[in-house]
Each structure stands twice: as C-alpha cells, then as structure tokens.
Here is the input.
Amino acid sequence: MDTLQTMKVFARVAQRNGFAAAARDLRMSAAAVTKHVAALESRLGARLFDRTTRRVGLTEAGRVYLERCLECLQAVDDADASVGDLGGGLTGTLRVAAPVDMPSPLPAIIGDFINRHPDVVVDLQLSNRPIDLVEEGIDVALRVAPALDGHYVARQLALIRLVAFATPAYLLKHGRPRKPEDLSRHRGLVFLEPRPREEWVLEKNGKQTRVKLRAVLMSNDGEALRATALADAGLSVAPSFLVADDLAAGRLERVLPEWTVLPALRLFAIYPHRRFLSTKVRAFVDALRAGYGDGAHDPWLSRASSALKSAR
Here is the structure.
C-alpha cells in the first residue's frame, strides 16, 4: 500500500475526527479509508485511534505519529513547491483560521493574495473556539490575545486596544461618564468569551480601577454587541477593529478615552512549525504583515483618530 497516501489518509481522519468525513474530503469510500488506517496501525504495531460509536479520537501514539506525519507531508509539499517556484507560482491549498469577527483588512489581504497566486486555494475557517493547528491541519491562524504561550510559532501583526463606547444619543440620554465609577450606573453590553467581561479594568497613570457593570445584554458575538450599541441601548467595550469605522463616522463615541481598558490585546499570525514552513505559508504570513503594518501600533484606532481630526 502506498505509504504516502496512507499517511495522508491518517492525517485527514485525525484532522476531521472521523472516517466518514475524511472519506468525503478525499473522495474515497469509508471502507478504503478504514483499510488504510488498519494497514498503518498493523505496520506500526500501535493503535492510533480510539473509536466509539460517537467519536474518533487520537491515542497518545496517534498524537505523536500525527506530528511527525505532518512534518513529512509538509516536506513533500515543500519539495513540490520548490519546483513550482521555478515556474514562478505557488500552488496547493492554504488552510487559514480566524475569529468570527475577522480583523479587517483580512478579506482584502486574502483577495489580493489569491489574485497574485491564482493556483492557490484558500480554505478559510471562522471560529472563536480554541483550535489545535496540528490536529485540524491549519496552516496559519489569526489569534487575538494579550500574549501567547509559545506552543506555536507566532508573528505579531498589530496591537489592539479595547475601546469603551456608546452612541451620542445614548450618552445624551443617560449622561456621559466622567470617571470609571460612573460606569456602574450604565447599561452594560457584555462580551461572553473567553469569559464574561462584567468587570472592566481601567488604567491611568499607573493606577488601576475595577468597575462592576450592570449587564442588560450578554453575547459571544461582538457584532451583536456593536449593533445593539448602535441602537442606543447601552455602553460596551470592544476591540478597536470592530468599532473603528463607527468611531470615525461619529456613529459611536469613545467613553473615558483618557483611560486604558485592560488587557491590551495583540493580533498574531501563528503556525505550527518553524521547520518545513512551505513557500505559500511564508508568502501568506508576509502578506499579513504587510497588510496590518509594523505590528507595534493599533492601525484601526490610528485611522479612526485621523478621520475625526480631519472632520473637525
């Protein structure tokens, strides 16, 4: 049996957590997929999957083998790509993961990338859940976080400020907060992930203040909170990339702009391995870094501030 094909089948079963899903992706019968995995387990003398009627999961041996297997498959892709590069083009599928609320200008960056590399297919997966890049076969992921634990290779693309905001109409009706303690009397629109932000931490001149909110809406969708705020229904906090256009247009106003809402976030591009980094992954990461800027500043808040100054 073709060892390379068997490794590809094993990797896809692991990434899709199932034989039937892998069979559909590979356009093979479920029986053929099962046969490949059985042959591999027989050759290795180890069980690679725990199978139940409800799910398929990797054993410890399966997790170890998957990482090495993906390195081998990546090396084969690199060899193919090196020949493709001689012809001047990138090829293959690039699997990208990003948050549901994609930080702009990601769609434009992807559009420009596939225009410049027409033989590359971008498979874009949007999700706010934690993603295991190795097990799910993701080449590059965009992650918003204060910091990363070093488990993956990371490139910082931008700084992201958290912004407290409301509409001018809401502030006219309910009053403009003058100090952090005033926030507790307002109608809070609260984000739920990764944990409910019913308490805000603000900092000014090295002094931190915690404020408990009175939540009238809780959601795991930043766009829902933004839309509700635009309906004059409350005061919220969101990453700058979600509300920069509204701030620039005057539809929303910053609240307590002299205070910093903690924690400061960062946008990272992460990928599993420094070794065996394919040409198309390297090219896409370079495109991300060019699209977002120098990585040390908040490009969305800078643009919003510049637009407001110009309007005045």
Remarks:
- The two ends are 71 Å apart (CA to CA).
- Residues 1-87 form a domain with the Arc Repressor Mutant, subunit A fold (CATH 1.10.10.10).
- The chain has a mean pLDDT of 88.
- DSSP finds eleven helices and 13 strands in the chain.
